[in-house]
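Handout, section 4.2: multi-component inputs.
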Amino acid sequence: LAKTTQPISMDSYEGQEVNITCSHNNIATNDYITWYQQFPSQGPRFIIQGYKTKVTNEVASLFIPADRKSSTLSLPRVSLSDTAVYYCLVGFALDNYGQNFVFGPGTRLSVLP
Amino acid sequence: ETGVTQTPRHLVMGMTNKKSLKCEQHLGHNAMYWYKQSAKKPLELMFVYSLEERVENNSVPSRFSPECPNSSHLFLHLHTLQPEDSALYLCASSQDGAGGPAKNIQYFGAGTRLSVL
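Output:
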């Protein structure tokens, strides 16, 4: 299983850009990098996914260097409603052994007024 | 609305009760999952079904019994639970395989908050 490491918690203020970095040194060739957001008492919600270089959508950007051993989720101009836990996952499709990635503890982002 | 509906949203049961959690996905996906999330803990994967066949069972106690009658429905049957089984139970679905690198993006329901007394 591809293992990921990300900060346990981060604080930010409204209007700031937040960057959360995830390390995944043993990423495999077929692995994609996926980020989810989870609010209390709700299921995680897909934010963004990438394989290499940069991906941008209406919510966030994902930066992946050439060696793919890390990735950075960038949230532009955060608001109080972005306070949540953010999970970085590295993996591929289901294989014969089941799911090849796990949810770690994630990064608890607190946005302050 | 994620396209994955879980019922009930809240459930309180005694240790001798039998109950079932239901999950339905309206996304046309072919894989479904059950996760358990205890307070301030990471999500724990319990069961995975792909094309209605169970492909993963992460050493879950037999008091939890999954059922996947078709690709749109997933059940978790509960019996003789313990207080430590109180948690948020989440269902998810994804489109797995389908040729080329599949990205396994999972769509989660809102969960069932289970309290075992």
